[in-house]
């Protein structure tokens, strides 16, 4: 007997569910390698609360998608309603994966660094802190190879490598030099508080000799898009 082929709406929902699972796994992995044993209890409690909150939101979204898929399978939802719901979630996933421009409230963090002042782990620490504080869209801009300002959209697979040349970094394959500007869309006061925590990323920049300027924005636009790459190892299941 021939099996019924899944509809396009069900395929969209399946892709979104896979994306949510990958987002949760990445979030947990980013914190597990961050040297948690050296953090004070207050920071550990904050990180645990952040992960618990993110896990709860992802579980709610996952349950909603599973329920919607069940309705479609049973024929209990109209095609238009189902397609509209799936499309709205697909739009959200496009934002999270850096495939479309986005705007909203957030923060702008500018880092003015003297030569050789920034180790790669400090840039990674900023990215992780922004994620932990609930930033939904993140962009890093700096000076590119042609002396022009170049931006990189931060996604789950983003990596940072310091080149042998002083103060030169490669972020997702893009060469960037300071000064750096981080733009993040999310709850501005929450993100600002996380970045300014005692001993946090802004403190670390200042201790290494960098100048730091942090502002909360009511509405900022991020137009840089992430380069879409095919996974080498991960497969849908």
Query: How many strands?
Result: 7
CATH fold-level name of the largest domain:
Alpha-Beta Plaits
> How far is the first residue's CA from the last residue's CA?
23 Å
Query: What is the CATH homologous superfamily assignment of the largest domain?
Result: Protein of unknown function DUF881
Residue share in helix: 40-55%
Largest sheet: 7 strands, antiparallel
Enumerate how many helices there are, as a single number.
6
Q: What is the count of distinct domains?
A: 2
| Global outline | globular
Ranges where pLDDT stays below 50 over 5 or more residues in a row are 26-35
Structural class: alpha+beta
- State the CATH class of the largest domain: Alpha Beta
Task: Please indicate the percent range of residues in DSSP E strands (runs of 2 or more).
Answer: 15-25%
Radius of gyration: 20 Å
CATH architecture assignment of the largest domain: 2-Layer Sandwich
Mean pLDDT: 77
Give the SSE order as H and E letters: HHHEHEEEEEHHE
Summed up:
InterPro entries: DUF881. By secondary structure, the chain is an alpha+beta fold.
Q: What can you tell me about this protein's structure?
A:
The chain contains six helices and seven strands. It is α+β, with helices and mostly antiparallel strands. The chain folds into two domains: 89 residues, no CATH class; 121 residues, Alpha-Beta Plaits, CATH 3.30.70.1880. Helix 1 packs antiparallel against helix 2 and helix 1 packs parallel to helix 3. The chain is globular and about 65 Å long.
């Amino acid at each position: 007997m021939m099996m019924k082929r899944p509809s396009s709406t069900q395929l969209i929902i399946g892709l979104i569910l896979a994306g949510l699972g990958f987002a949760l796994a990445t979030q947990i992995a980013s914190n597990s390698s961050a040297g948690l044993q050296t953090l004070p209890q207050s920071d550990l409690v904050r990180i645990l609360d952040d992960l618990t909150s993110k896990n709860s939101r992802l579980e709610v979204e996952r349950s909603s998608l599973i329920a919607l898929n069940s309705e479609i399978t049973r024929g209990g939802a109209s095609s238009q309603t189902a397609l509209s719901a799936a499309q709205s979630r697909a739009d959200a996933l496009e934002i999270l994966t850096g495939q479309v421009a986005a705007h909203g409230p957030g923060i702008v963090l500018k880092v003015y660094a003297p030569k050789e002042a920034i180790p790669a782990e400090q840039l990674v620490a900023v990215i992780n802190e922004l994620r932990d504080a609930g930033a939904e869209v993140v962009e890093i801009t700096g000076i590119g190879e042609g002396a022009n300002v170049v931006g990189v959209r931060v996604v789950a697979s983003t990596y940072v490598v310091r080149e042998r040349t002083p103060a030169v970094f490669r972020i997702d394959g893009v060469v960037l030099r300071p000064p750096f500007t981080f733009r993040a869309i999310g709850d501005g006061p929450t993100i600002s508080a996380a970045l300014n925590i005692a001993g946090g990323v802004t403190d670390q920049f200042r201790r290494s000799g960098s100048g730091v300027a942090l502002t909360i924005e009511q509405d900022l636009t991020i137009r840089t898009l992430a380069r879409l790459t095919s996974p080498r190892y991960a497969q849908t299941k």
